[in-house]
Amino acid sequence: MIEITIRTDKKGICNGLIINGHAGYDEYGKDIICAAVSVLVINTINSIETFTDDKFTVRNDEETGTIELNMISDISRESRLLIDSLLLGLQGIEEQYGGQYIKFS
């Protein structure tokens, strides 16, 4: 199962997230849920890096299926929108495929 942990600041703005695990929907290399989550997360990270001046760290481990994003600067409007869009996409996957494959914790 993919578990998503959202970190927020004092104002309730998402300033980091941890995505951990594998969905187990299908075998490695054919798992459409893992693929969808990976595409959304990697595209968001690349978009923040390309389209904003915000500073962040990323830690990933393919074996465990962990990607951790931590914003280390003030979060621009653009990054907030990109992260909100990511969360919307992840929630859509959870609604479509159910909590046995992906869930927010």
From TrEMBL:
One term of GO molecular function: cysteine-type peptidase activity
This protein's record includes keyword Hydrolase: yes
Pfam families in alphabetical order: Peptidase_Prp
InterPro entries: Peptidase_Prp, Peptidase_Prp_sf
Keywords: Hydrolase, Protease, Ribosome biogenesis, Thiol protease
Keyword Repressor appears in the UniProt entry: no
Superkingdom classification of source: Bacteria
GO biological process: proteolysis; ribosome biogenesis
Signal peptide: none
SUPFAM superfamilies found in the cross-reference section: TM1457-like
Family (UniProt): Belongs to the Prp family.
Name of the featured protein: Ribosomal processing cysteine protease Prp
Species whose genome carries this gene: Velocimicrobium porci
